[in-house]
Amino acid sequence: MDITHCYIEQGYGFPLILLHGNGEDSSYFEHQIKEFSVNHRVIAIDTRGHGKTPRGEAPFTIRQFADDLLFFMDVHNLDKADILGFSDGANIAMIFAIRYPERVNKLILNGGNLNSRGIKWSTQFPIELGYRIAKFFADKSPEAKANAEMLNLMVNDPNIPLADLRKIMAPTLVIVGTNDMVKDAHSRLIAETIPNARFKAIKGNHFIANKKPPAFNDAVAEFLI
Q1: 225 residues of the chain, pLDDT tens digit each
Q2: Which fold has domain 7-114+159-224?
Q3: Are 17 and 100 in contact (CB under 8 A)?
Q4: Where are the domains of the chain?
Q5: What is the pTM of this model?
Q6: How are beta strands 40-45 and 81-86 bridged, if at all?
Q7: 10 close to 33: Cβ distance less than 8 angstroms
């Protein structure tokens, strides 16, 4: 069953869709929405089961979220858009661009990963541990079940085959923090494999869009020209 997404829309021009990360909502892009709306119709979406968008009954997976995005674009008569995804949002954007390349104009991937092996172990280990604990208590607690479902996205998703990246036709910017939780070699491999992609590292951690907005916004704006 399809869902009705909660979203923020601002500005006019060619559509730019913003996709937040795991456990977040569209407010993550508080430093991007107004600035990018000067030249774009900015649409920041709450993913299924995040923010004010309902969970629904469909599978809670990155691939389902990508299909949700297709449904959203169809409902809102968006034939094509620039897409900026952060973290799990970048993973949604990658899968969307692989499955529906004709719907993507330009692609910005901020801190995405192909699989859990692309994440530094210092970050991934507590996620794996938390997932196992939450899964153990999932039958006893609705909160644990919801937490297990959310953490599952970072343990068993997105598992994108490297070769599938070659199906992405849109010009792509892979942008990360110099101290990102995604391994530098992993991010560079994504950029090297996607045809017509460029790589950009900004001083900071995984959350450069939120913590280093001037540098992040300038890099994205330059790419979108």
Answers
A1: 589 999 999 999 999 999 999 999 999 999 999 999 999 999 999 999 999 999 999 999 999 999 999 999 999 999 999 999 999 999 999 999 999 999 999 999 999 999 999 999 999 999 999 999 999 999 999 999 999 999 999 999 999 999 999 999 999 999 999 999 999 999 999 999 999 999 999 999 999 999 999 999 999 999 999
A2: Rossmann fold (3.40.50)
A3: no
A4: 7-114+159-224, 116-157
A5: 0.97
A6: unpaired
A7: yes
